[in-house]
Every structure is written in structure tokens, then in C-alpha cells.
Amino acid sequence: MSVLTRDEAQTRAQFLDVHRYTIALDLTTGEDTFDSRTVITFTALAAGDTFVELKPDTLRSVTLDGRPLDPAALVENRLPLTGLTPGEHELRVDAAMRYSRTGEGMHRFTDPADGETYVYTQLFMDDVQRVFAAFDQPDLKAVFELTVTAPDDWTVLGNGVATRTEGRHWTVAATPLISTYLVAIAAGPWHSVRTEHAGLPFGIHCRRSLAPYLDADADEILDITRACYDRYHAKFTEPYPFDSYDQAFVPEFNAGAMENPGLVTFRDEFIYRSAVTDTERQTRAMVIAHEMAHMWFGDLVTLAWWDDIWLNESFAEYMGYQTLTEATLGGSGGNPPRKWGTDTWVDFAIGRKSWGYDADQRPSTHPVAPDPDAVPDTASALLNFDGISYAKGASALRQLVAWLGEKDFLAGINTHFARHKFANATLADFIDSLADATDRDVHAWAGQWLRTTGVDTLTPRISDTGTEGGSGTGWTLDVVRDGSRPHRVTVGAYDADPAEPARLIRRDLLELDLPLTAPVTAPGRRPALVVLNDGDLTYAKVRLDAASWDTALRALSGIPDPLTRAVVWNAARDMVRDGDLAPTAYLDAARVQLPRETDLAVVQGVLDFAAVQITDRYLSDTDRPVALATLTAISRDLIRRTEDGENPGLRLTAVRHFIDAATQPDTLQEWLESGSVPGGPELDPELRWRVLNRLAVLGAVGPTAIDAELERDPSATGQEGAARCHAALPDPGAKARAWARLFETDDLSNYLFTATAQGFWQPEQATLVREYVPRYYADAVALADRRGPAIADAAGRYAFPMYAVDEESLRLGRTCLDTAEMIPALRRKLVDQLDDLHRALRVRTGS
Q: How far are the Cα atoms of 634, 638, 728 from residue 670, in angstroms, in the given order?
């Protein structure tokens, strides 16, 4: 396939003005393909040649201004349009297009729970070509009119209000000007909950087998949707720009969600079949807020080229967290506010921000706003959907708001919307809009924050000092900045509570602009704990001085603000990754502090790092059993602490980690046989599959037990659970069968591929699967070439031998990178994985 280059897109944008797409899709033609008929009206602004993109199964006919074109002229995904004269033109394309099983293009899914079939589009980047012919680039916006033929009992959803006209035929209201990648259709026998808000139809939709679970959460989902809608209208002067707002929870979705105008698609794991924690509900709410922010930033005003993808994602990420915080504090439309048990920004700090920090320290790092030459084509652009464009970019915007002030920030945003609505804009346009709202030098700020890479490190230098005249006491703070960015930060000073030494009291909160022109002196004795970036308003690694770290080890859970505790835990995390703190010291701190921690997001973030990175990667095989015992002890303490039923989310988190850390099967088998943890919770489907997976890893169950559980839970998630468990069995035959399913056949969907890969590699089974480590690289390269970017991403993320932490595995990977030709999606994943592997080796050896 030919990927579109930036130069080609710029040339075509200067040559064409695209007006309208009239698209007819027939979804009743079979299980493998659907019919797609497209009429594009456009103006050529000069005489010349261009091309239209499509990826058909069969191209039946093409006419340009009534003149037939030869379908054989289609080369890869490009059909030449030659000899165009200035003026109006009409292109007609009739093709059969192939359904996808990888979440790209028109994805088709048959629900194993009831046999019902659903289809939906994911057209991001360049996958619109899998559904209809298009001039596929974001700055050729047009009006889209779609008609859809679907089976009798299906409902069709689209970017606008969809109406059944007769029988199987549906018409979707014409869109305003939008980009090709934002067109969306979702069709199937949906279960729907509909309402109206602010004069617009709102709807939420899922497959029928999930109907009871959607109904149980419908009020919560719609309440959050209305509250965010109202907050955005309080912030933005431009009204919501589309005629309806539907949210479809769709199966086997590759991303968290997609901001299609008027029809946001979400992965349907957000419809919870099993018990979840409040932080998981908060995450769903944040994604709702994030995608709604895109209706303005991304859909109303769209990037001109993919180098500015951060403008979409960083803005939506920042606004999602901030707006959710505001919306849930006050409720909406008479509805009570939602209580999550944790501040939204705490969850960002402990659960999301590390994604940006980690990405920014790898060889693949890039500026938040990369140079246009660094994004020469769509294949390279796809690589930038990472922790930098999301978490780092959102952190940079949060720092910008702290420096600029929210009033001026929103004024600049609203200027940007007014200037570029229903059009396209660049980073320069965005910065110009902000600059018009303030006297501050926003252009210089953008150069320092958005055009640079890496993470600054802030280290305190603290000393006691006498006051002037030699009487009294005081303390002095200097901050050593390893990096070049300016930072507006707050610094918290804490003392031990005389009545309870394990609890800390904040004495002072200093507001500083870094770099300091001179050390800052404050009255009183030296604080017991000094925390840089208290409040987490900037993006930087922070360090604690020795005395502060000693205090934190004794009293971290006694810091009054959970956001401050998240900052301190992140400092400890960074110190482990950088080799400045022994992984066992982090585990020891967690053992002492987590049983007293009150914020669920903090508990989850610390336990996740302790389990996934420290226990499974940073510690040697001989040290791992002690680490697992520590995690088991922490989990057991939390389970005991929650016996009163007051904190079910904390208890659920503890039970999950107890299961994952188990080294003996007895307790888990007792739970599985009784169907419950003593004192609760009952083992719902998620917990049953989690227990069974751990028992499979330990060799305590076999294929018969897994198949019996699948018969009990034949749902889509049950199918994934069974695939994961079968691949996890410590048996050479099971491993050979799983490997063949992953790499030797192409019939696994994206989700079943991921589940099988997750089960295959286990830390306990390193010797059993050692022979597959060298096989992985050649097999992954061939698979990615056959199946494309989505499966390449999954192969690089989940099928990588991450527990083979040794020099030989690193050598094999680097040799593959140096010698093999591979698609960019896989190369980027391997670069990141091998850098993480190298870091794990350094942490293990202390070098």
C-alpha cells in the first residue's frame, strides 16, 4: 500500500476543493464483503492530475464526469485521475469492500453469546479507504451524505441523525464540513437508551448481550455526558456543532474511544459485566469527557496535517481531566455530583502521567509538536499516538494554564475556534490565538515546551540558616534543574504531627518560577519533608533530599493531600527506573505505607508498578519469590482492612493483586470452588477468569477446566479468557498450539490475538518458552507484513518476550532492528520494548 506523504497532501490540497461525498453502503451482501458506492463532487483549481484512494476487494466500475475509467488502473490503493480541467467534476466509484477482523476499516463481529452480528467503522489515519473511495487527508473537508442498507432488525447509527426510510434502508443526515477520517457508521441490533438534552437527541448503545449492564449504568453515563456538555458550553463560546450525540460501545475496538462527530465509539469493556472500582468508573467518565472535548478541538477545528496530532489529543486529554473534575464537583441539571473517592488529577498523576515520562526517555521520543519534516507520511504519523502526544502534552497544557491563567487560556481557545471553525489549523495558528489573549510570550513558551524532547529533573538543595542579625532560625531552598524548560511550581513544606508522628502537616506552600534567580529563604526550622511540584502542575521528574526521603519512608501515607502522595510515589518510581533506588526499597515502602493509604488511585498505581515492573521485570528470578510474598502480604492486609465492607473498590483491588501474586494454588482453588472470596466479593466472570488464569500459570488446572469455564461463560470476554488461559498452560504442546495461532495462521481477531499473546509469556515459565525468544523476531516481522499496523502493534506490545530479561534477548532484538525490513508500527514497538529491556537489565545489575 502507498502511504500518503505530507508533500503529496499539500499538493493535492492546493489543487482540489472537495464539496460533497454521497455514499451508499449495502451491508446485506454477505459475511465477507459489503458494497460501497461513492459519488464525490469536487473542483479542480487548475489543469492537472491527481489520485483518489481506496482499498477494495473488487473494484467494479469508476466514472469521471460520466467517462468510464479502467479499474485496472488502480495500483495498490491509488486510482489516478488524469487530465482534469479547471472546474467542477464528479467521480463515481462502485466497489465491494472487505470486512475487517482487526479493528480497521469496517470491523465485523459476531457475538458468541447470542450469534448477533455488528459492524462499525474505525477510519482513523488512512482506513477510510477500506470503506469508500476518498481524497483521504484531513485538510480536504467536505459534506458527507450516507445511506445504508442493513438487515431488517438492525439499527444504523451515523454522524448525524439516522432515519429508517423504508424497509432495510437508512438515511443519515448530512454532516457539516468534516474530515474523511471522522466519518462513522455503526450498525447492528443495538440495545439503545435514548434521551434528550439541550434540545439535542442523546443516545447510548451496546450489543444486546450487554443490555442489562448498560441499563444498570445508563443514568451514570448520561449524567456524566450531560454534565460535561454543560461545562463545555460554559467554557466555549462556539456551541456544540453537530445535530445529535450518540455514544456506541462497540466490540473489539483497538483504542479507548474515537471522536467521530456525533457518534463517538468506545471499546465495550466500558460496559462493565463485573464489579469495578470507582477509579475505573472515573476513567470511563474521563474518556467520555475527553471525546466530547474533541467535538470542538479535532472535529470543529481539525489539524491540517498529522504533525499536529498533539493539538487534538493533548487538548482533549487536558480538558477531559479538568472538565470532569469541574463537572463532577457540582453535578448537572439537578443531578447530584458523582463521588469517585479520588480527585481526577490524582488518577492522572499516578496512573497516566508515567506513560508520558516513560515514552519521553526512550530513543523514540519526539517533541510534543514535532517538526513537520519528522512526520513525512501517514505511516510515521501513526507512531505519534503515544504517551507524549497524550500525557506529556496534557501536562504541558496544564503547566501553560498555571503560567498563563485559565481566563486567558480559554480566551485564546475561543479565539481559535472562531477563526478556524469547520476548517483546519496548525500549531502556529493555535499559538497566535493564545498570544492574542495575553501579554506573555507564548511563542517562546511553545518553543521551550513543545519543540523539545526529554524530561527535566528537579532536585532540591536544602540548608538551615540563621535569620538576619543572627537571631532566630530559617531554612533555604535552592532547586537544581537538569533541563532547559521554565517551570511554575509549588513547593510543599511538611512537619510531623506532634500528636501522631506518622501523620504530616503542611506548614507552607511556596510558589516558585524556575530557574530561581537566587535561593529562597523561609522562616522556621527545616521541614521534615519538602516536596517539589506539590500539586503536580508541571511535567518533570522530581527528587527528594535524603532527610525528606527518610520522612517519606516513615509517613508517606500520612501526607494530607493524595495528589502530593502521588507526586512522592512518582519520585520513588522514577528513582527505581533510573537506578537511584533499589526496587526492594520501593517494595518495602509499599509494604509499610499502602495498608494505611486511603486513596484508591494511589493504591492501584503503586501496586501496578510493583507487580508489573518491579516483581516481573526488575528483580531476578531468585529475588522474585520474596517480592511476590510482599505483594501477597500487602494484599492480605488490605483485604483484612476492608472486612467491614466500607471500601469495596479497595477490597476488589486487593483481591485482584492477591490472585496475580499467588504462588500456591490452594486458596485460589477454594475461592473458585466456593464462588466467593470469604467475606466477599463473589467471583463474577472477571474474577473467575483471573483466578483460572493464575491457576493455569501454576499448572493447577488443565484444558478441561478451562473449557468448562468457557461453557459457563461463552461471551466474547469468555472467549478471550479461555484463549489467555490455554496459552498460559505450562505445557510444551499448549505453547506450540498458541504460537501457531499467533504467528502461523491469520484467523484470530485483534482481541483474541492479544489474549493469546498475554497468556503465552509468563515469568514463571522462562525456561519452558526460551526456544521461542529467537523465533519471535522473524515471526513478528512476517506477521506484521501480512496483517498490517493494528496486529503489528499488538505483536510488538503483547507478544514480545518481555520476561526474557537477559543480554542474549537484547542482542537478538537489536540484530533484528539492524537487519530486518519491517513496517513502521512494528519497528517503533520493538525500539521501545528493547529500550525497556535494556533499562530492566541496568536496574537488575545496578549499572
A: 20, 20, 21
Give CA angle at 626 (621, 629), nearest 5°.
125
The number of beta carbons lying within 10 Å of the beta carbon of residue 702 is 15
Cβ atoms of 668 and 659 closer than 8 Å:
yes
With beta carbons less than 8 A apart as the criterion, state whether 33 and 57 touch: yes
Residues 6+ apart with CB under 8 A from 435: 412, 442, 443
Q: Burial of 334 by CB count in 10 Å (0-12 exposed, 13-18 middle, 19+ buried)?
A: exposed
Count of CB atoms within 10 A of residue 465's CB? Answer: 12
Write down the pLDDT at residue 339. 63
The predicted structure's pLDDT at residue 449: 97
Mark residue 524 as left, alpha or beta (left: phi above 0; alpha: psi -120 to 50; beta: remaining): left
The one-letter code for the residue type at 175 is T
Residue whose entry in the numeric block shows the C-alpha cell 477520517: 181
Q: Model confidence at 777, in pLDDT bands (50, 70, 90)?
A: very high
Cα 26 to chain center, whole Å? Answer: 32
DSSP per residue over 358-417, as a string?
HHHTSTT---SS--GGG--BHHHHGGG-STIIIIIHHHHHHHHHHHH-HHHHHHHHHHHH
User: What residues act catalytically?
Assistant: 291
Task: State the Cα–Cα distance between residues 694 and 696, nearest whole angstrom.
Answer: 5
Distance CA 665, CA 660 (A): 11
Mean pLDDT within 93-106: 98
Asked if 511 and 562 touch (Cβ cutoff 8 Å), the reply is no
Task: State whether residue 447 is helix, strand or coil.
Answer: helix
Would you report the helix, strand and coil content of the chain in percent, each value rounded to 5? 45, 25, 30
Distance (Å, whole) CA 759 – CA 735? 9
Alpha helices in 494-623 (DSSP H): 546-555, 562-577, 583-593, 600-608
Cell numbers that stand for 409 in this block: 487560556
On whether the CB atoms of residues 53 and 59 are closer than 8 A, the answer is no
Residue 763: per-residue pLDDT? 97
- Range with the poorest average pLDDT among 560-564, 641-645, 648-652, 757-761: 641-645
Q: Of 758, 785, 845, nearest to 810 (Cα)?
A: 845
Q: What is the CB neighbour count within 10 angstroms for residue 31?
A: 9
> Residue 638 belongs to what H/E stretch?
helix 624-641
Query: For the whole model, what pTM was predicted?
Result: 0.97
- State the pLDDT at residue 428: 95
Give the position of cell 477468569.
Answer: 689
- Residue 290 clears pLDDT 50, i.e. is over it: yes
Report angle CA 560, 564, 567 to the nearest 5 degrees: 150
- Name the phi and psi angles at 533, rounded to 5: 60, 35
CA distance 26 to 650: 49
- pLDDT score of 765: 97
Distance CA 542, CA 550 (A): 16
User: Closest Cα to residue 129, out of 89, 94, 180?
Assistant: 180
- Cell digits of residue 330: 457540582
Q: Are 302 and 141 in contact (CB under 8 A)?
A: yes
pLDDT for the residue 847: 74
- Altogether, the residues listed in the chain come to a count of 847
When mean pLDDT is compared across 223-237, 333-347, 678-692, 770-784, the lowest value belongs to 333-347
